[in-house]
C-alpha cells in the first residue's frame, strides 16, 4: 500500500518537498495501516526531522485523525504541523437567492463590513467583529510582512465546524469568518471573525471562543518575515501549558 501525504509550511520546508509517498505492507493478519503506523514510518524515514514530526498530526479527508484510525490509499492525507493560531466558494453569480458563503479563504484584502453583514439578523441584538492585523513589532523585532498558507479544503471545513460549535453552545448565534492568505503587509487584516447573538454577553463569549478555536485547530500557518530573515510561527497554548493537540476537546466540554 502506498499513501500520498501532503505537507505544509515549516514541515514542507524541512523535508524539502510539498508531499511524500509512504509504502506500507499489511501485517500478517491483513490489518490495514493505522495513522500511528504512518507516523512511525515517516519518523523512521526522516530522522533529521523527528523533533518537528513529533508535534505533527495526520489529517484524513479534511479532519484530524486519531492514532488508532485506519487509513486507506484512497484517503486524502496531510501531515499537519502546529497551526499558527491564527476557499469558501462564492455563490453562483446567477443565483440571486444564494446566501453568501460565511466561511471564506481569500487572497484579496478583507472588507470587515462585508463579513459583518453576513451575520446581521433581526433576531440578534449584538454583533461583534474581531479583526486580526499585522503588527510591526513583536518582542522588539520588526516585522516586514506576514505570509499565510493553508490546507484550503480542510480549512473551510474546520471553519464550518467552529461555526456549528458556536450555534450549539449559544442558540441563535450566527458566525462568519474570512481568512486572508499570501503576503499581508503591516496594518492589513489577515482574519475577520464576526459573531451575532440575541444578547450582548453571549456575543462576547462566542467571539472569544471562535478566536481560540481558530488558533487551536484551523490548518493555516503564518510565516513572519522580518529584516533579518523569516520564521514559521506555531501554536502557543493560551494557558502557557501543554503542546499543540487539535484532538483536545473544545473548552468547557468533557
Q: Which properties best describe this structure?
A:
254 residues; alpha+beta; Ubiquitin-like (UB roll); Aldehyde Oxidoreductase, domain 3; 5-stranded mixed β-sheet; 6 helices; 14 strands; 30% strand; globular; Molybdopterin synthase catalytic subunit
Structural description of this entry:
It is a single chain. By secondary structure, the chain is of the alpha+beta class. The protein has 2 domains: 2-80, Beta-grasp domain (Ubiquitin-like (UB roll), Roll), CATH 3.10.20; 103-233, Aldehyde Oxidoreductase, domain 3, CATH 3.90.1170. The chain contains 6 helices and 14 strands. The chain has helices at residues 9-15, 35-45, 50-53, 112-117, 152-169, 200-217, and strands at residues 2-6, 19-23, 57-60, 63-64, 77-80, 103-106, 126-133, 137-138, 141-150, 174-180, 182-185, 189-197, 220-226, 229-233. It has a 5-stranded mixed beta sheet, sandwiched between helices. Strands 8, 9, 11, 13 and 14 form a 5-stranded antiparallel beta sheet that branches. Strand 13 and strand 14 form a beta hairpin. The longest helix is centred in the middle third of the chain and has 18 residues, at 152-169. The chain is globular and about 60 Å long. The protein starts with a strand and ends in a 21-residue tail after the last strand. The model is unreliable at 86-97 (pLDDT under 50).
Main sheet makeup: 5 strands, mixed
* Helical residues, percent: 25-40%
Number of strands: 14
- Determine the number of helices (DSSP H or I, runs of at least 4 residues): 6
Total of domains:
2
| CATH superfamily placement of the largest domain | Molybdopterin biosynthesis MoaE subunit
Uncertain stretches:
86-97
Question: What is the H-and-E element order?
Answer: EHEHHEEEEHEEEHEEEHEE
Task: Report the structural category.
Answer: alpha+beta
CATH topology of the largest domain: Aldehyde Oxidoreductase, domain 3
Strand arrangement within the widest β-sheet reads 2-1-5-3-4
Distance between the termini: 37 Å
CATH architectural group of the largest domain: Alpha-Beta Complex
Organism: Paenibacillus chitinolyticus
GO biological process, one term: Mo-molybdopterin cofactor biosynthetic process
Keywords: Molybdenum cofactor biosynthesis, Transferase
Region (Disordered): 231-254
Amino acid at each position: 500500500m502506498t499513501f500520498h501525504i501532503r505537507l505544509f509550511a515549516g514541515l514542507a520546508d524541512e523535508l524539502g518537498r510539498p508531499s511524500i509517498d509512504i509504502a506500507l505492507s499489511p501485517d500478517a493478519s491483513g490489518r490495514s495501516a493505522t495513522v500511528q503506523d504512518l507516523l512511525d514510518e515517516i519518523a523512521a524515514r526522516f530522522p533529521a526531522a523527528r523533533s518537528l514530526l513529533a508535534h505533527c498530526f495526520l489529517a484524513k479527508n479534511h479532519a484530524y485523525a486519531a492514532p488508532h484510525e485506519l487509513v486507506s490509499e484512497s484517503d486524502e492525507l496531510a501531515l499537519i504541523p502546529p497551526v499558527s493560531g491564527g476557499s469558501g466558494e462564492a455563490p453562483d453569480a446567477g443565483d440571486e437567492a444564494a446566501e453568501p458563503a460565511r466561511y471564506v479563504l481569500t487572497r484579496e484584502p478583507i472588507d470587515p463590513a462585508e463579513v459583518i453583514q453576513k451575520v446581521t439578523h433581526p433576531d440578534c441584538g449584538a454583533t461583534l467583529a474581531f479583526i486580526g492585523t499585522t503588527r510591526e513589532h513583536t518582542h522588539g523585532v520588526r516585522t516586514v510582512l506576514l505570509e499565510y498558507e493553508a490546507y484550503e479544503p480542510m480549512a473551510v471545513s474546520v471553519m464550518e465546524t467552529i461555526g456549528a460549535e458556536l450555534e450549539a453552545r449559544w442558540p441563535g448565534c450566527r458566525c462568519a469568518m474570512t481568512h486572508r492568505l499570501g503576503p499581508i503587509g503591516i496594518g492589513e487584516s489577515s482574519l475577520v471573525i464576526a459573531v451575532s447573538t440575541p444578547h450582548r454577553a453571549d456575543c462576547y463569549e462566542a467571539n472569544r471562543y471562535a478566536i481560540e478555536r481558530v488558533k487551536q485547530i484551523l490548518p493555516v500557518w503564518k510565516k513572519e518575515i522580518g529584516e533579518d530573515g523569516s520564521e514559521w510561527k506555531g501554536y502557543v497554548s493560551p494557558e502557557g501549558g501543554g503542546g499543540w493537540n487539535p484532538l483536545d476537546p473544545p473548552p468547557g466540554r468533557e
